[in-house]
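Please annotate the following for my students:
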Amino acid sequence: MSVHLADNLKLLCSHYRSIAEVCRKLSINRAQFNKYLNGQSRPTPYNLKRIGDFFGVESYELGLPSEQFARLIGARPSEDARQAPTDPLAALLQPLREHANSLSRYCGYYFEYANCMSVPGSILVSLVHLRETPGGDYLFERQERQERSSPGVGEAEDWVRCRYLGAAFCLQDRLFLVDYESLTLNEMSQTILIPSFKSRITRLNGLKSGVSSGDRRTPACTRVVWEYLGREINRIAAYRQVMLYSPDDPRIDPDIRERLCQPTVRDGLFAVD
């Protein structure tokens, strides 16, 4: 049974992004699961039932000859397929998800510095949180806050808030991030960052494209700098720094100011710190 079991497990796992994802969802040690896949060990009856329940097959079916087993699962729709129709958008992105590299080391909180698209001459500081999902995808949330030009500074209604939700992918040594404004659902933006190849992440350079929040909704592209804050931070204290700044504001690090002032098209655009 162990010979057929190994081949059948490999076939079942091929329907998932990685062996690591299967082990994570099964809560089975990766090294032990590799022994099952290599035919070096056979699961206990308890683990065999867990594996069968997870993949939607009977325990005894896992030991069937490989060709018979392949025909069996090919004729049997999965639980997900029975419960929900195929999502065209998910199917479109699936090859990209499988090809993308890991972003685990970049997960955490960042201050994003960018030349403000709606208020030229100002620097907009946003708070970004990049995280990994249990399924191995990378999602992020970006919080923006801009002060109104009306009296009564300091009151809650004197701030315009934006909350962007998006997905991140690492492809060919670039970080691609696409998001949408979740409160108004009227815009999307894209950010491209160059990763840091140093052992310690400090700042990432890149470009951001989108539209201004003005009446004309003018398309724009600007330099952007992400400053790493850590995996756990005081979010309240960090959010208080989310606002518009003048370019000469002493709270803006001179190095960040210099990076934002560089031309958007030139050689060496994406130097990293």
